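Good morning C.,

I know you're traveling, so I'll keep this short. The sequence:
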Amino acid sequence: MKIRPATEADRDAIWKIFHHVVAAGDIYALDPHMSREDALAYWFSPGIHTYVAEADGRINGTYILRPNQSGGGSHVANAAFMVPASARGEGIGRAMAEHCLKEARRLGFYAMQFNFVISTNTTAIGLWQDLGFEIVGTLPGAFSHPQKGYVDVYVMYRSLVS
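The tokens, ready to paste straight into the viewer:
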């Protein structure tokens, strides 16, 4: 598997992944009915580094890396990851996460923070904890899960400084 910066040619593959993941409405606080145009504008916004995971000429995942905040908070990175259900369990998420941490360090970020990790997304939480992230805050009932109702959301953080 190769993880590389996304190109214009990757937009269709990224849209398919984005739409599949977001339409489920269970792991992202994004509009499940977001248009292709809006989704790609979000994923390729100025100041965002967009990557894809590719194997055998096929895009199996994508992630973005950006400053969590502007100004005085711009030294802390933020990221979002998407892997379609058909490719989960193959190590793509872990490979992208490890790549992301290296890229964040290379770009000079001091730390990484995830602002809105839905508590029912136990696979992601386990991965982040395995990679050194800690839950530093809980937002009670902050996400309306389509099957489970109001569930907690975590803020997760880790330093990137050795």
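Safe travels,
E.
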